[in-house]
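Project standup — Tuesday

K.O.: blocked on the structure for the chain from last sprint. Re-posting the sequence here as requested.
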Amino acid sequence: MEVFKYLEKYDYEQVVFCQDQASVETIFGSLTKIFAISKEKNIPTYVAANRLAEERIARVAKSRRQFLRNEKNILSQLTNNNFSK
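H.V.: unblocked you, prediction finished:
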């Protein structure tokens, strides 16, 4: 989860008392989804967590591909418009 951010700069109180409310809500939401998938599909929670992670990775990859396609189109339009004047 969000353990990695504590490796570089460890703050005991922030880790133990989890003062970052947004992180707590994100973790809670993720765990809720994992438990729901596990129960619905009758699979272990680790498998449900992997599926959830794979779905998120696929969504991000698709979003990035779309962005890059749009970026190329925008850049080519700008380039064509600048050189045609």
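K.O.: great, moving the ticket to review. The mean pLDDT is 77. The chain has four helices and no strands.
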